[in-house]
Every structure is written in C-alpha cells, then in structure tokens.
Records
---
Amino acid sequence: THPAWSSDGRLSWAVDLSRLKVLSPRSTKARTIFPPADVEAVFSPFFASGDRLFAVGAEHVPGIVATEDDFLDNLWRYDSARDAWTKLTSFVARGDTWSVLRTPVWTTHGTYFIRIRGSAGATRPPSFQLWLLASGKARKVRDLPREMYLAGFRNGMPLWNVPDARCGDWGLFAGNADRPERIGCGAVMVDPVARPDPDLQVRAGNVDADERPQHGGLSSELAVVVGDFPTRHRAREAGHRHGELPSPTLINHAKAPLAVRPGWWALAWTADDATGGADLLARVRAALPGLSEKAWITSIPKGLGAPSR
C-alpha cells in the first residue's frame, strides 16, 4: 500500500504495515526496511528533496493492547547510509486520548500532514487538523471542518480527499478546506470507505442470500445499538423490555453490515447528534440493565433505526 516515487526514480511502498520496500531503477530486487524498535507499524512512506525517505510510524503505548487501529503516530526519517531512523515529531497519547497521522505530503515549504485526535471513550467525532513540519518543528496550521485528508497540491493549492455521497466513496476537492470545490471522484492516498470490513467476511454459503449486506452510499446517522443476538426471536424478546423508550427497530447484518456481524441481529434507536447519542445511550442502558454492556453508539444507514423520542 501507499506507493511513493522519488525524484530519482525510486519506488517505495508499505507491506502489511510491518516494513517498507524500496526499489531502485538500477536494481531488480527491492530493499526491505524494517521500522525502528519502538514502532509497531510503518506506513505512508514519502520522499523529500530527492533521496530522503520519510514515513509514519505507529508506536506502542503502555497499557494499550489489542487496538483495532493505531493509537499514537509520529513522523520518522530514514537514513539509508546509517540504516537508522530519526524521530521528527513528538506527539504523545495519554489515558484514552489517541493521536494518529495520515496522508503526509512533502512540499518545498515542508511536510504537511493530517493529525486526528480523539478519545476512545468519547461519543463525539474526533478532531481533524492540518499540520506542517518545517525546519525541524511541527505546528498546527488549522482545524479542519470535517473528516478530510490531503491528496496533494496543485499550483500551491491543497487537494483533499473527502467522503462524498455523490461519489459513493471518496471525492476529490481543491481549494480552501471550508469550501473546497469538487473536481472529481476517487481516492489518492486513502483507502476506500465502501470496502467491506474484513472482520465481517464469511465464506460463501455461510449466509443466506437475503442476509447478505446491501452496500449503499455513505448516508448514515448516529444510533444506539444493542446486540448482537443469534436469532431474530431473541432480539425481539429483548426489545419488548424497552421500558419508556420507543419500540426499537430490528436490524441485521444485511441492513447494517458495519454494525452487526453476519447471521446476527440487534436493536437500534437513532440519535439526533453526538450529545443526544450519549444521553440516549444512558437511557437505553437504564431501560435494559441486563444488556447495558451490549449497548454502544455507532452509525447505521440513514432512516433505519427507530426514533429515540
């Protein structure tokens, strides 16, 4: 993943996030570069000023184990002559607050990248920020209005990848981050958002045809989901004990493939926003105390869940 070209014709890419490969135009065999000792994953390599190789490194955070994704990232520079890495940024993660980096782009002014910060226990979306590393120092350029990533620069103007319903996946935008202009569809340095979750992949024949996921666009809304239940009957029985809450909607993997695993069922109530989601989660856990540990906030296709009021 994440292929990058140098000005002298070398190609670098990441392999399984565990190592980098670099292929020279004068060689038929790619060189393998392993990450520094304190880095668990390395990705998004890029070249600067011709031959200098940089990458994002995901670092181990004491007390954090078995995370779905990286928890703390920093930028690193690789010195091929010494076969050594140098850490360029000093971001930290404390408690359940995580900090990750995405889509670094080198320019003559320095390296721009996206920093995402959030709390593992929060119900609100994380923050997206544009940063610049120049002259050995990293500084925040600005907060971004929504989820967006760098796709490069054109005539000094930033290009962005933004989830876009009209494209059904990633859209390409140019200009000011507050009001960028759509210039097309496609992903430059980001992974497709419509790709099925590999955790949900099952062998053919294990799921009935009417339970296979129907992947639509990106239109979704916040919801509190309780599950998973092995059968529709078990889910319906649990939903009968909803107390003062409205009757929930029954959902399965076919209706909400990113929220429910194949063959299983769940209950769903929609929330107005992140703040309302936190309040709704508390109400659901109070109404269903025996299932409080099975309730969580997630996103489901728009119009699918029962209103929370």
Note: The two ends are 45 Å apart (CA to CA).
---
Amino acid sequence: MGNESKIIRKTDDSALLLLQEVAPDHTDSITDIDSYYLVNGTYVFLEFIHCSENAISDIFKMDEPSVLKQVKNIWDFVQLAEGRLWLIFYDDRKEHFLLKQVVACSHEKLSFIKESVKSQKEFKEWFQLLNKTVLQNNVK
C-alpha cells in the first residue's frame, strides 16, 4: 500500500457513526463531513471545497452563502466534538490548494488561525503525513 492515502468518497459511513455517537441531536444539520482523523486525542476534520477558476485568482472567495452555511453547520459540530476544522480549497486543475484552519465561524463570517497555499505535490505530502501521524498514534 505504501504512502497512499484513503480514497475520499462522497459519503463516509464512519463519519456518520461518529456524528451519531458524539452529537446525536445534531446529525441532521450536517450533510457531509469529508474526512476526519483522531490526532493526539483531538479530532481533526477536513472539508474540501471546490472553487471556480475565478475564485482561485481571488484567493478562494468565501462570501458565497451556500458555502458559509455548509461550513457553519460543520463548525457547530466540530465545536461539540472539541475538534479542529481545516478547509481545503481547490479548483478543477488541482494545481494549488489553499488550506485554512477555522478558528471561528458565524452565519456571516469565517475567521482563520492558520493558512497556507500548497502545490499539488506539497498537499499530497501534507495529507500523507496526516495519515501517517494518525496511524503511528493509533497503533498499539
């Protein structure tokens, strides 16, 4: 298997089970969590957000109400799980990825604590390191 990461699917049954376990009253408000990991006792959630080619040049605009609503619902759950949320923005070319760690979210605005732009190669390395860290921390 080597350095390959888990394939990201549209739905993830294990994420739904986590939602039901951690916050059963709030599972209906979350339509999709792309990926999550347990790293050193803290849940790290990843939300992949597709952007148009034009948004890429404007550093992935976040003023679209549908995206904000989606992130707000996920943020509310992340807070219940006492986790961290990373938004990963990409376009059709997948040449560059913008990673932003959310620190606060309301219905009007997102605030970020960390941000970085990565090439496809750098993102792949970051993602594989995350997977490797999880495996190392959870192997007994």
Note: The longest helix spans residues 120-138.
---
Amino acid sequence: MRAKLTNTALLICLAFLGGCATTSTLNINHINWPAPQPDEINIRPSLRQLVHDHPTLKVVLRVPNVTTNVTQSQGGQNAGAAEALLNNAYDDIEKRLFNAGFVVRDRALLSNLINERGITSYKDIQSRVDTDLIIDVSSLRFNQPQDWLLTPNYTSDDGVVGNAGTSMGEAVAYVEAKFIIVESGEVGGIVTLHVPICESVKCSYYSYYFNDGLGDVQSSFDANSTDKGYVAFKDQNSGAVVYLWGTGNGPGSINSAADIIAQKIVNALKP
C-alpha cells in the first residue's frame, strides 16, 4: 500500500538524547460526511396549474426582518455586515428567479405594505404589487452551528479509513419558504431546502504531528482553505475544524449558496 505520510526533519538530531525532531503530515482527501437532512418539497396541484397557466408568473419575495435574523454565525460578521450579506443573498435569489423567466416584483414594496401599513388582504396586495405568487421566506441561514454536519471519519489517500482525532465540519445553508397564491390566499407549496458547502467545493483536510525526539509529541489538525470563496476555522465549542460559506466570490461563498437555493426553488416551481 502506497503510504502518504511524509517525514521532515525540523531540528538537528540530538544523538546524546537518542532522538530527533520530525513532523508527519497525512492528507485527508475524502471525508465520510453524514447525510444532510433531505429536502422537503410539497407543491399542491393548484400551484402547478398556476405556473402552467402563467408562463411569465409574477412573483415577489417576502423576507424576514433581517435585523432579527442576523448572528455572528452568518460568517463571523458584525450585525451590519451580516445584514448586508443576507440582503445580497435575497438579491441573488431574485436574480435567479428573473433569469428563469419569472417577473420579479420589488420585495421592499411588499414589506412596506405589510409591515408598515398593516395591509394583510391578499386582494389589496395583488392590486398594489401586481403579483401572482408570494414566496414567503420564513428562515434563511448559512453558517449557523445547528445546521453543521460534523464527522471524525475520513479516508486517506491510500484508502485507509481512520479517525483523525478531531471532528471535521461543513456548514449547511438552510431555507424554509411557503408559496402563497395571492388571488386565493392559498398556501400552494412549502419547501425546506439544504445546501451543504462541501457539495459545491472540495473540502480537504490534513492532520500532522510534531515529535521533538524527546518523547513530547504534539498533534494538530487543519483544513486546506485556498479558495477565496469560503473560510475554515476551528470552533472552540465543538473543537471541529469547520468550512463556512464565505463573503468572497465563486464556489463556497454565501452568494453561491443563495444561487443554489434559488435554483432549487425554480426547480420546485418548474419541475
């Protein structure tokens, strides 16, 4: 079996003490992740018929007040930055809906009617916003710990399954939304969607230890975080090294996660 453990001398061997300092590194390229929660997609025939009858369906997002849904787990940002990230994520979802052929109405107008003017009649909303469908997002999360997938199990380059001694983790973007048919006020569908980050980026780890040749061995564990889209950090509570959706661009970014979520929503509406 081809070994992937490489030894590098760091200090001059101390012959009179009978040892020499070495480091050993093991690449971990396949992680045995637990299965994420399955997506739940429930669409009623009335919504299918609405989509069929309106090829250019008019939709509007209704989103939670982002100031009440912001935590540091949205990427380790302060409240203002995290609020901006969520707003950008909603913008990305709207762009994907627009590119899929939907007519996207201004979500700020809907928020003003409901939250500030207290208008709750769907007939009034339809006349003022001119929309067929409200996509009511009740929850949108990206990096919150309750959604992480954690595992201590891996397969190394040489095919050996082992335990690295420290858990690895990946964030799972999560969204829950209802589709409300405005004309009737009927809930035409409910979806709960999950997007693990390591399905869109290669999450690779490595473990290593340092032997000073005097019987003192120190081990550690880290992640190969080279893509600017995502970040990896050591969680102090669980001790896991966790990949998070990042604030950059491209795969592994919050924008990328929002785009994947939006595509799942489009697929639910247009199977």
Note: The CA atoms of residues 121 and 261 lie 29 Å apart.
---
Amino acid sequence: MTVPHADCHINCGKGMTRMGKHKAIRLSARDRAILHLADRLRVLTIAILLKGILAGLSRSGASKIVNRLVRSQHLCSYTLFHPTRYFVLGDQGARLLGRNNYRTLPLGPQALPIEYSAAVYCALGRVARKRLMPQEIKELYSWSIGHMEDALLCLDDATSVLEFLRVDLGGPADHVARKCRTDMDGYMVLSEFKALVQNKRCRLVVITGTKEKATAIKAALRKHSWPKGLLIHCSVVSELLLLTARKSHA
C-alpha cells in the first residue's frame, strides 16, 4: 500500500506554531464525519479521506477541506515523512468529542508507525475494516478483559471476523512471532474467545513493511502451534519501513 504526498502544511499542537485564536466555522455533516474518523483511526491522511468520506474529490479539493479544519483547530497537522502530512484531532475537535488534550499531540516514534499502519490497513486495504474503539469492544464483547480493550482490534463487517493487529516495528521475524504467540495465549484463557477462534471468527494480522519480511514472519509463525480455527494473515504497508527507520535513528 502506498500513499501519495499530502498537501496540508498548517501545524498546530503543543511545541509547534499555534494559529492563535482559532477561526470559528460551522461544521457540516461531512466535517463531523471527518472528525469522527480521526477519532476512530487516530491518524488521518488525505489518501484515507479520498478513499472514503471525500471520495470523488480531487486531492486539491480534499486538501482545502482539511486545511479549513486545521485552521479552525478541529484537526492538527504533523509531518509523517516529508512532504507527507498526517492529521489528528485538534483542540476544538477533541473538545467537541470529549477527548483528552493528549490526543492533539504529535504521535511518538513508536506510536506513529503503529497507529498509521493500523489506519492504512483498515481504510486503504482491498476490504474496508472498522477499527474498534475501547467502548465498542466492551459493548460487542462484554467478556473482554483490560488488555484486550487496549489492543489494536478491527472488525471485518462483511464476515464478522474480529482481527487482532500486531505491527512489526523492525525486530527479527522470530521475535514478532513470539509476540503474537504471547498475545494469543493471553486471550485463550477466555472461553468466549476460544469459541470465536473455533468458529473461525478471529484473525491474527501481522503488518510489516516489505514482502520479504512478511515471508520471513510467515515462516516464523509456522514454527509455533496455534489454536485450531485461528485465521492468520500478513499485510504489507510499505511506508512502515520509512517510519521504523526514522524511529531507529530518533
């Protein structure tokens, strides 16, 4: 999956240039949908919006809409990798949705590749997935435990398969496989989770940066035994390689 360069260069956030008093605007239903998507995915890009909410618009047209939301501080714009930008909730957007101010800050060197990869997987894959928010996890899976509610989970609405995402941050393939094994061991203590797996309604998804690394991870995963019925998939997000390389030099 590749993402073209982005067009928005207006920043906001702590430690960055502020616009001063924000420009008040009247939010349309589309504006609100963009904010809710930023809340759900944690990271937005122009490419993600053009695939969904702003489908049919030109890149320039989408950028104008996003720039307006940045100027009003409903969104914040930060550097993904030059010249591409990513967007999170701004002060006004966080206030509107009842989120803490930390959600307006730039993502750290570990959080950014994780959140970006999850957003790309959910929004730009061949099949759209719905990233689940903690409250939705509690509502859909009342038996869930704390670390499950904090996990990267998404739902394939077409098949009702619950997907557990693990993002490869550059460690050896065997290390990634062991992390996945630990994840699954923690969930398999729940009888309800076991039932999901046995009914083939649970998928472990490993996101990595290259096809070669995906092949290595698949080989490492095959060295482990997995619960019968568990679906396993590897997905490639090529920009992850750039983000983890930047992290290693931070």
Note: The mean pLDDT is 89.
